Amino acid sequence: MPVISFANAKGGAGKTTAALLLATELAQQGYRITVIDADPQRWITQWKEISGPVRNIEVISEITIASLQCHLREMASRTDYFIIDLAGARDALVTTAIGLSDHVMIPVQGSAMDAKGGAQILDLLALMKEKANLDIAHSVVLTRVTSMVTTKALLAIKGLLASRGVNVLDTPIGERIAFKELFETGGTLHTLDPQKAGNLEKARDNALSFAQEVMRLMPVRIIRSTSRVFPFGRRAA
Ligand SMILES: Nc1ncnc2c1ncn2[C@@H]1O[C@H](COP(=O)(O)OP(=O)(O)OP(=O)(O)O)[C@@H](O)[C@H]1O
Ligand SMILES: [Mg+2]
């Protein structure tokens, strides 16, 4: 069961939105999802409280460094994908969660500030590889993309990151009212009132393409040969 975390050291990059879209779309596909809400602001926990029971989704909150690994272990037999939503920081909990992840998604908006927050996570990943021999797969996912951002501009960002060896998902997450609305109304894109959501069909297509790309990157039957050892200082298997 892959562990996917969403990290960007800068607040407001679109982590929680992307994490919720992935969780709800994978759940819609029939996968059992455990969302670990490791952000003290508890946005996904609040979403769950408004939503009530959502098929295939469990949310765990009040996460600490000590409890994180226990939750992953406890829920493993009942989970197809773990999704960890992290605070906009580069602290010990973020570092621990990244160390326990199979894939780190780094949402990045077009702005320079945002790219800096993403770069801090890329630096952290490089450090973990160098110091702890932990080679953790990661991708940048472009978020809040509007029609103002041209294909040419997106290709330029992709090219720049690719030249530094960073994978960028083919599917950017668009700027959509429906994605914001989920946090107000609860539920998923499949239960949302079309009146409230602008072009709901496009939003659904976008979220599905994003989830499908992640599924292709991480088919669910990943078999880990050994459990991962953390924290730093020990050699990972
Ligand atoms: N694709 C999107 N379309 C529309 N609004 C979005 C989108 N992504 C994010 N937003 C909005 O931008 C704001 C910040 O997004 P979000 O909470 O997902 O970022 P974050 O990286 O999780 O922030 P934090 O670091 O504070 O946890 C929210 O108001 C959210 O509704
Ligand atoms: Mg957040």
TrEMBL record:
Pfam families: VirC1. It comes from the Bacteria. InterPro entries: DNA_Partitioning_ATPase, P-loop_NTPase, VirC1. CDD domains: ParAB_family. Signal peptide: none annotated. PANTHER family: COBQ_COBB_MIND_PARA NUCLEOTIDE BINDING DOMAIN-CONTAINING PROTEIN, P-LOOP CONTAINING NUCLEOSIDE TRIPHOSPHATE HYDROLASE. This is Chromosome partitioning protein.
